[in-house]
Structure formats: structure tokens, C-alpha cells
């Protein structure tokens, strides 16, 4: 992260000192920035002369004293409270008294870090997203002791660096890492319950909802150790609120060293030459249209529940939020409903993925629970709905904002579907947030 942040600052016109105690890390950072600039030259976004001039703005140093001339120091060392506070003490000893210090921490409290500094008024959080030169969002996090004038100054500076900067309350996970939790936990829960194969689940998230990666493949890419640690830290920081509970199965992968791409296996196996597992599509040619079957979008109830209420066979379709979706995902109350769902897919020219019959299926339940958590973040004052939507689209590339989605789906339907999922699963974590109830009324 440090090298990427330094690149952003250099491209915004600053001279930059990159300090790292580990010299090979400095060389790696320098190579990374060189590669990034070279790529911009190849794409015609940067002249070779300008790239050389930019590279000359960096000084790579293993000595903290080289930070003495810096007006802003952004810390991005490993995620450890004592290591960070020890480093800040060293930095405060060498910089000018007017210098501003910032942390790129993802999970530590800015107020707590600031409390260990000699000048907490000149300290705040500047949370970048990976890769920093690409991702637009910056969460600007004032601590309780941060000088109130520093926040607007930091927002203006980040905007001048070409970023979308938002003020965020100092709460665990800030906006993005908190609001994104159900994306992972719902993906893992569906996988643990055997709702469909991993490849089918990841496909459904991409195809029906438009996410760039499904939650399981995303975990393999981020690294399950990092992803699980982040889940745990948010869960523990909220004193075990069940909505933030990490996945037991992901914990087992971590314990077994199956960390994802970087270790050669995780949810998937990454042996050289191995093909990525394909989603399990059900053959739609076997379908038979039967007008006595009720086919309807999921409203949070299972197909069996709707069938019992209507006295007929029922297929429920998972929610599709992507106009370009190539498939339907469904659950059926019986074989007749299954055949009718396959005939429906064939008539629509779509592939079909069969899911286990569970409340809210996969995409709907995930979007509902993401929106539920986002609504709680509004209640807790972490950010306004517009800020949360902006953050999720620009921090983690969500295809749409959750409040935009909920408004389009209808707040009454959101509340009723969550109630159905809460009833069907018997799990209180799906109970609709009071903020959603207010939106619905
Ligand atoms: N990786 C991400 O996606 C991401 C995103 C947002 C925020 N963050 C946060 O950014 C920080 C860094 O994350 P990362 O993934 O870049 O970590 P990393 O482990 O890749 O890099 C940390 C670097 O800090 C150096 N370092 C360690 N102790 C030091 C010290 N006392 N003085 C100087 N340098 C020291 C290490 O040599 C290493 O090069 C963490 O706080 C993390 O939570 C990471």
C-alpha cells in the first residue's frame, strides 16, 4: 500500500520520501512504481520524459530521519497497534512541529492511535483502497482529538490528488470494511449450507448481480488469512454482533494454510494448467412448461412455503439486478416446478442454476443483508446513505449503491423480504434495521 500511496502523491505534484525499515521492501516498492509508470507510458497516458521526472520525485530510504522535511506523513506499516504507535513516536521526533501525521489503518481506532501521540490534534486516518493509484475512494477519519480544521484540509488535499474523499466516523471497519461484511458472510454461509457449488455461487453473484467477483473467489484473491482477520477484527470490535460473525469454514481454511491464490489453494485449487471449475448449469432442454406451476421472483420465502400457501407447485427465482444477466437461478418446490423453471429459462434464452430451496436464495438474501447492515451504519452515524453508496461503488467497485438498489426494489418489499428470511431461518440477524422500517413507512 505504501508505494501505491506514494505514487498517488507524486503524481499530484509532491516530492515523496518512502521510508521502510526493510530494504528489500523498498526495492519492491520502487519496482512497483516503475512498472506502474511504465504501463502508463505504454498506454500513451504519460510521456517517457514525464515518467522519468515523476520517478525523480521519489526518495526511497531506510532511515526515519529522512522524513524530517515532510509536511504530511502517511503511515502504512503492518496492522499492529504497538508497532504503529512506536513508529509515530519516532516520526514525531524528526518532523517539524506543524507536520500532519496520518494512518492508513483498516481496523485500528484513530482516536486510540492518536492518544499515544505527542500531538493528537495533528493526526487523522487516511484510508486508501488497494491498489491506491487505481481506487478512487479515500475514507478521511478524524479522531476525537483531531483538530476540526484538519478534516476539511485533508478532504481538499485528497480531492486535489484526484480522489473521492469522504469524512467517516472513527468506528470499526469505517464504512467500506464494515458494510461489505455480509457480502463475504452470506457467500460463505451459502457455501457451508451446500446451496450450490462454489463455482456456481460465484457465477451467480457475477451474472445476476454484476459483482466483479463472487465472494469465494474474492477471498481466494485477497488471501483468506487477511480476509478472515478483517472479519474477526470487525466482529470482535462490535463485541460479537452476530451480523458480523466470521465463517467457521473460512477459519478452517486459514488454519490449514489454504490461503487462496498465494498458497496454491483455497476454495479453489490453483495448480499450473488446472482449469477453473465451471458453474453447474442444469440442462434446460429437459424442462416442460406447465401452466399450473407458479413461477415468481423470490420474496424471501422458500418455494416450499409459497407452494403451501397457494396449494400448487412453485419455482422461485433469485433476484437479478443485472440487465445483462445470462442465467436464472431458481429453487423449486417439487419436480414439476423444477421442469417448469427449466422450460421458463429455455424460453427466456437463459442458462439455469439450481439452488437449494432456502429463504431469500443467494443474491436476494445477500443484497438484503448488505442493505440491512448499511442501514445500521446510517443509524450508528458512520455515514449518510449517499456517502455509503459512493463509498461502496468507489472503494470496492460495487455495481450499484445499496440504498439505490433498495429504493429501486422498494423499501416495503425490502422490509418484508428480510422479515421472511428472519422467520424462515429463525435467525434474528436478518431482522430489518429500524432505518429500513423508517424508509418503508
Ligand atoms: N493491503 C490492503 O488491501 C490494504 C488496504 C487498505 C489499508 N491497508 C492497511 O495498510 C497498512 C499496510 O498494509 P499492507 O498490505 O501494505 O502491508 P505490507 O505488510 O504489505 O507492508 C507493510 C510494510 O511496512 C514495513 N514496515 C514494518 N514495520 C515498519 C516500521 N516500523 N517502520 C517502517 N516500515 C515498516 C514492512 O517492511 C512492509 O514493507 C495496514 O495498516 C493495512 O491495514 C491495507
Task: Tell me about this structure.
The protein is an alpha/beta fold and 441 residues long. It has 19 helices and eleven strands. The chain has a domain at 2-170: Rossmann fold (3-Layer(aba) Sandwich), CATH 3.40.50.720. Helix content is 47%, strand content 11%. It is elongated. The model has no long low-confidence stretch (mean pLDDT 97). It has a five-stranded mixed beta sheet, sandwiched between helices. It has a four-stranded mixed beta sheet with strand order 8-9-10-11, with helices on both faces. The structure holds nicotinamide-adenine-dinucleotide. The site of nicotinamide-adenine-dinucleotide (NAD) has 19 residues, from helix 4.
Q: Largest beta sheet: what is the strand line-up?
A: 3-4-5-6-7
The radius of gyration computed from the alpha-carbon positions, rounded to a whole number of angstroms, is: 24 Å
Unreliable sequence segments: none
Any idea what the CATH architecture of the domain at 2-170 is? Answer: 3-Layer(aba) Sandwich
Structural class: alpha/beta
CATH homology group of the domain at 2-170: NAD(P)-binding Rossmann-like Domain
Indicate the multimeric state: single chain
| Helix/strand order | HEHHEEHEHEEHEHHHHHHEHEEHEHHHHH
Proportion in β-strands: 5-15%
Q: For the residues shown, what is the average pLDDT? A: 97
Helix tally? 19
Bound molecules: nicotinamide-adenine-dinucleotide
User: Judging from the principal axes of the Cα atoms, what is the shape?
Assistant: elongated
**CATH hierarchy, class of the domain at 2-170:** Alpha Beta
Terminal residue distance = 44 Å
Provide the CATH topology of the domain at 2-170.
Rossmann fold
Biggest β-sheet strands, sense, barrel:
5 strands, mixed
